[in-house]
Amino acid sequence: MRIRAARWADKDLVAALIADALHPTPLAAWLVPDTAQRRQVLTAVAAIWVEHALFFGDIHLTDDLAAAIVGFRRYRPIPPPANYRTQLIAAAGAHAGRFDLLDILLSAKQPTEPHFHLAFLAVRPDAQKAGRGTALLAHHRSRLDRIDLPSWTAVPCGGQHLLARYGYTPRQPITLPGGPTLYPVRRNAHRSGSAMPVNPSRSVDNRWQNFHA
Known about the structure:
Elements: E1 3-5, H1 11-22, H2 26-31, H3 38-56, E2 57-62, E3 67-74, H4 84-92, H5 96-109, E4 115-123, H6 132-147, E5 151-156, H7 159-164, E6 169-170, E7 174-175, E8 181-187, E9 210-211
Parallel strand pairs: 4-5, 4-9
Antiparallel strand pairs: 1-2, 2-3, 3-4, 5-8, 6-8, 7-8
């Protein structure tokens, strides 16, 4: 499966892809309880972070445009998206407070040292369970080893088991008030000559996300 870097022209497609993958999940229902507005709000908020990742991170796509991985290179603290508060209110309206709360809870668990923040792994619902997510994770793992950075993310229940195959180990879960539990995981920096999954036998020392592989 071929994987390429996203271009500026792909940003709306990637935002819609993230919203489509997130839409049926408990996290989406917690963020936007209004089912009539859910997809529109998710797409609009995702678009803010996709554009930001094109400046402060990277985005990769499968060549069929059915799956994407989005992350931020946090060598040092990065600024929020331009006019973020205004953009978030315009995108989420009355639901902006849920996105704010999620960001606060995730930020409290995020590493403070330089790391790669894996923000989204999204696969279009009709293309899931066909290897696209695992292909993107293998590609991502190979790139992490070349830049020699630790990586961090938070995933819904089940996602932590997939990421364990790529060297991630669990951290303290985050339970959203009246909502689902998210599971932070971390992968320490280490170089490797192979992009194949691994099964670690011991733990690694010591803004909203979606995993559908």
